[in-house]
Sequence to fold (87 residues):
Amino acid sequence: MDTANSIAFVLVLVTVFFVLKISTLKHPIIKGVLNWFPAILFAYVIPAAFTHIFRWDLSQVNLHDWSRNIIIPITLLAVMSSLPLKQ
Fold:
């Protein structure tokens, strides 16, 4: 596995762990933030922030195509269908 694939794999693991952990916390401030910004959206923000800050180009990684074509559309559909009409 080359360096870019390793970076992408670790970034995905860290992001998934963070999203799962933050969604179970009961702190009032975190709950308030999650009412405004759903935890699943951190799955997009965290990798975007890391790739921007460290200027990583992970567009050639195998995971990128799979994520762009399958995971992101399904996740967006799931998130949007689970939101109340008011949100």
